[in-house]
Amino acid sequence: MKKTSFKEWLEKIAEKEGLKIKVRFTKDDYTARVRKDGTMEIPECLFDKIFTSEERKAIGAHEIAHLKYRHYEREEKWRDKKFLLLFFVLSLTLLPLAIGLTLLGFDGTLSTVVIIGALFAVVIQFSRQVLPQYFHLKRSHELEADKYAAETVGPAPQISYFEKSDRLVEEWRKKGLRWRLTIWYRKKTHPSKSERIERLKLRETIKKFKETEA
To answer: Residue 32 phi/psi, 5° resolution?
Structure first.
């Protein structure tokens, strides 16, 4: 499947879901992604000979699912609530602390050091509580998108893509610190490849069972 045909296929699936997308092919990344405004970025490396047209469709359907289920909006609302909570926690912690230090007669420099220390302590503790929740939310969205892609093109293309994807990851890991950090973050916000493959294989087994029963 050439780029033009793939683009048309993506637009057809998106239109079926009542979505408008703008497909852009890029050399700036190794994995596909979609933005909240409907811009879908498809990496050129997906058109290497090792990937099939069905595997590309699976990746495209996965990204369409992120738009269909409004994952980015849900994540933004979640983050906004947590930032508001952090603001209240800091207000309830730092304001009384500053007033207390002033009443106790601490000088400005020492008060500043104490307040900054308290600020870091609150933010670090808050992050320790919140980040695992955020990563869990992101991973649940990835699994939901996997499910949609499996229903759209079948589980097998996703499985075969995941089995081939290590080569891409290792190639981009060699590009420097920025990409090593990006890959680390994606591993935190995505389920493990083995978990995703296991779930997809279960779906494939169920699909074959239903076909034999029909």
So the answer is: -75, 155
